[in-house]
Amino acid sequence: MACMTPPPIARQHLPALLAAMPKAELHMHIEGSLEPEMIFALAQRNGVALPYASVDALRAAYAFTDLQSFLNIYYAGASVLLTEQDFHDMAWAYLQRAAADHVVRAEIFFDPQTHTARGVPMATVINGLARACDAAHEQLGVSAALILCFLRHLSEDEALATLAEALPYRQHFIGVGLDSSEVGHPPEKFSRVFAQARAHGLHVVAHAGEEGPPDYIWQALDVLHAERIDHGVQATRDAALMQRLARERIPLTVCPLSNQKLQVFPDLRQHPLKALLDAGLCATVNSDDPAYFGGYVGDNLQAVFAASDMDANHAWQLAANSFEASFAPEADKAVWRAQLADCFTQVARELPGS
Ligand code: HPA
Ligand SMILES: [Zn+2]
């Protein structure tokens, strides 16, 4: 259980522990898992012209100053996705990588409006992604589910049309989220579409407090009734909000390397993850857009621990929080919690000096 005390493990074994522990990843945009090599391979397969001469030239463009500077390149990269097989291959590559990081549960964001606006049918997007999720369960033992995100720089009417277009595929996604350019697009702009999604029994999450103010987090909770806050790191600026998040155990899906690369916390030593955990919040670690921000969930854990004095207790909390925060069935969570306890026991027994 989340409140169980893990066995003591020496600091030098933290990297091995972080790598080996089972974990859930709850904040990852599948279009952000497109590695430059795959962007070029899909461009060639589909005859799409790219404004970059080579993989290296594309990678060299990944020098971001803020969220918008990233989003411009991220949407350009997604333009190579045309067929159901493309969506399948992208998700399958991510899920294989996640399995190598001991991810046992992945709740995957996708941005249908990025694709339907280019004439790609909703069915192509969802069927390709869902086929990869099914294969991950069967072949990798990874439980994977999809969360449809609305682009907040577009109108609520467009989000409503997107939800209507996706509902025939309702069995293939478990929830809705809200992403893209945050500042100037507050959660309350999407109150009606989130109410509709909830009425359809969908889970609801929202990006809030990545670059935007704590007020956007309050709105996500009180207007959208978000069950999790994606990022949420600006909550540290509002003591009353911190108390509420802790008291209600509202999960924050934190993405350290994203925050670093988008200049939210350019120095990871200033990152508030440890402060969030120590204040009793249900914080988790995730990769956001791993192909763009320098790493997958395991890399995020290694980087944020290397930059702080967090210990094995924090590692345990992060893994336990990721299961608590997930929308998976309780029976699955019980299995993963037992695996987590086994993992800690094994590391404590096998590695010297623990
Ligand atoms: O970090 C993010 N923030 C908002 N929108 C996004 N879309 C992909 N990644 C992000
Ligand atoms: Zn995100």
UniProtKB/TrEMBL annotation:
The record's similarity note reads:
Belongs to the metallo-dependent hydrolases superfamily. Adenosine and AMP deaminases family. Adenine deaminase type 2 subfamily.
Q: Name one Pfam family in it.
A: A_deaminase
Which cofactors does this protein require?
A: Zn(2+)
Q: Which organism is it from?
A: Ottowia flava
Protein name, as recorded? Adenine deaminase
Q: Which residues take part in binding substrate? A: D289
Q: Does the keyword Hydrolase apply?
A: yes
Cited SUPFAM superfamilies: Metallo-dependent hydrolases
Q: Where along the sequence do coiled-coil regions lie? A: none
GO MF entries: hydrolase activity
Q: Which transformation does this protein catalyse, written as a reaction?
A: adenine + H2O + H(+) = hypoxanthine + NH4(+)
Where is Zn(2+) bound in this sequence? H27, H29, H207, D288
The record describes how the cofactor is bound as: Binds 1 zinc ion per subunit.
Is Zinc one of the keywords?
yes
Q: Where is this site: Important for catalytic activity?
A: H231
Identify the EC number(s). Answer: 3.5.4.2
Supply the alphabetized keyword list: Hydrolase, Metal-binding, Nucleotide metabolism, Zinc
Q: Any idea which residues are catalytic in this one?
A: E210 (proton donor)
Q: What does this protein do?
A: Catalyzes the hydrolytic deamination of adenine to hypoxanthine. Plays an important role in the purine salvage pathway and in nitrogen catabolism.
Q: Which residues form the Adenosine deaminase domain?
A: 22-335
